[in-house]
Specification:
Layout: E1 3-7, H1 12-23, E2 29-32, H2 38-47, E3 55-58, E4 63-66, H3 68-78, H4 90-118, H5 127-148, H6 161-173, H7 184-195, H8 197-206
Parallel strand pairs: 1-2
Antiparallel strand pairs: 1-3, 3-4
Helix pairs in contact: 1-3, 1-6, 1-8, 4-5, 4-6, 5-7
Length: 230
């Protein structure tokens, strides 16, 4: 085994890379990081002093690769599988990179801002920032709806890195700002992502951790943690 992914099964950005790995059946070993554990955190900081995951370590090529989009492009180049996650045509690849960044910046980021605010002490919360993040999600949903058109996936008829970005971003975002009646294509697209075996596996592995998610009661019914018995 030469590939090691430093990650946590609850983290949405880790889900993005895990989906890419599972999509192509790429062999790797998972190293789960507990940021509350000094030794576990130190193992991550030795690789990437910024201290954010996921981080991919490739022992065969002596490479340490941070940042989700870079990790997926690295895998696509050095460990290609049956599903090319970046199209060979440069113009098509730019479209994929655009929507990859779109989901990271305009769905993931506001989603995480809302969750982070929920985790703050009562007196430190910022309702104005939450409202701003919610507005951004509404705007993003409308743009995704328009982009989908008659496409199966966000950039065309084949799944790409952009869809790996979309799946976890939409999974968590929908628990905070549900899709509206006008988001017909987005709802169907979201269901296709949930049904994709690679992402279904990611969610199955995350289920033991979902009770830590502060909005777990808003998760789709099949993913909600069981209530403890009285």
């Amino acid at each position: 085994m030469s590939l090691f992914l430093y990650q946590h099964p609850l983290a949405s950005f880790c889900h993005k890379v895990l989906m890419a790995l599972y999509e192509n059946g790429t062999p790797f070993e998972s190293r789960i990081i507990d940021l509350g554990n000094e030794e576990s955190r130190a193992s991550l900081l030795r690789l990437w002093p910024i201290g954010k995951f996921p981080v991919l370590r490739d022992e065969a090529l002596d490479s340490t690769v941070p940042e989700t989009s870079i990790i997926i492009e690295y895998l696509d180049r050095h460990y290609p599988g049956p599903t090319p996650l970046l199209p060979p045509d440069p113009t098509d690849a730019l479209c994929v990179r655009l929507w990859d960044r779109f989901f990271d910046l305009y769905v993931q980021a506001p989603m995480q801002a809302i969750v982070a605010d929920k985790n703050r002490p009562e007196g430190a919360r910022d309702p104005a920032s939450v409202e701003q993040a919610q507005t951004l999600l509404h705007t993003a949903y409308g743009m995704i709806e328009q982009q989908l058109g008659e496409k199966t996936w966000i950039a065309g008829d084949t799944l790409t890195m952009a869809d790996c970005a979309a799946a976890p971003a939409l999974f968590y975002a929908e628990t905070l700002v549900p899709f509206g009646k006008q988001h017909v294509r987005l709802k169907h697209y979201y269901q296709r992502l949930l049904d994709r075996p690679s992402f279904a596996r990611v969610l199955k592995e995350a289920m033991p951790y979902f009770h830590f998610y502060p909005y777990h009661e808003n998760l789709p019914a099949q993913f909600r943690p069981e209530r403890p018995h009285a």
